[in-house]
Amino acid sequence: MTTSTSPLLSARGVRIVFPGRHGAPDARAVDGVHLDIRPGEIVALVGESGCGKTTLARALLGLVEPTAGRITFDGRPLEYSGRSLKAYRKRVQLVLQDPSGSLNPRHTVYDAVAEGLRIHGHGGDERAVVADALSRAGLRPPERFFLRRPHELSGGQRQRVVIAGALVLEPELLVADEPVASLDASVRGEILALLLRLRAELGLSALVVTHDLGLAWNIADRVAVMYLGRIVETGPVEQVLTAPRHPYTRALLSVLPEAPGEPVVLTGEPPDPSRVPSGCRFHARCQVLAGGGADRAGVAEACRGRDPEILDGGGATQVACHWAHAGKG
């Protein structure tokens, strides 16, 4: 699916630390991430709540400046001046989880979609551009929707309006944060099919942030699984999801309805970025370590005491796991 080997968007060694309040330890929300997105590629960033995926997405959008590391777009480092960010956000657009939260209830559909054009000073035929974006987003005939307000639309139609609002600026990359989480199952498939069609028609790239591996399977070319601020497994979606090597990826997959065997119930505390453990950050909840598998492979000590290397963010299948590298994963 990719059209080029050089990344459109690239994160290198990105760290985002939020200072703790009232003497509390700092929170390492993103703790060393390399991630590439190539032209025409859809990458799913997957993990449970609190793993840092939304903070990373915000950094990739230029909404949060990294504490360390750098982000480049089209080969150039992201700059944080107002003018540079405005130009950048024309090329990289956000699609939020809850369309009703991102649409002003007092605005018509036309005004909601035209807002980006007005902010960025579009000089052409506004009405034609708005109509084209609505049509591409599957709201046809578009003129029928111009004067409607969000409360007059279904959830799926509202999400299409949000997508149309992103499309009017002809971006190269969409960052979609849980784009179908608030929608009924019947509508989810339609929105995912729309995103795939937009990629085919416009050559769009996308980063889809989700906790749902099933969604990743249906839409992504490549998946990056995130745990406690770091990507722990990445690769082509079919390879990672049919032959997962990291115990965390295996646990996430085990709870899908179609998964074979019993679901893996993760014990221990959910990820807390202000208390990142030594060694492998997953070791305190790892079913392989708890079940003696790491001991048998001779890596239990490494799991508890040695941090696995940061994955390089490219297209190859990679895993940050001592047990998997011992030939067991």
TrEMBL record:
Molecular function GO labels: ATP binding; ATP hydrolysis activity
A Pfam family annotated for this UniProt entry: oligo_HPY
InterPro entries in alphabetical order: AAA+_ATPase, ABC_transp_ATP-bind, ABC_transporter-like_ATP-bd, ABC_transporter-like_CS, Oligopep_ABC_C, P-loop_NTPase
Keyword Transport: yes
Entry keyword set: ATP-binding, Nucleotide-binding, Transport
Family: Belongs to the ABC transporter superfamily.
Name under which the protein is recorded: Peptide ABC transporter ATPase
Organism: Streptomyces caelestis
Taxonomy of the source species: Bacteria, Bacillati, Actinomycetota, Actinomycetes, Kitasatosporales
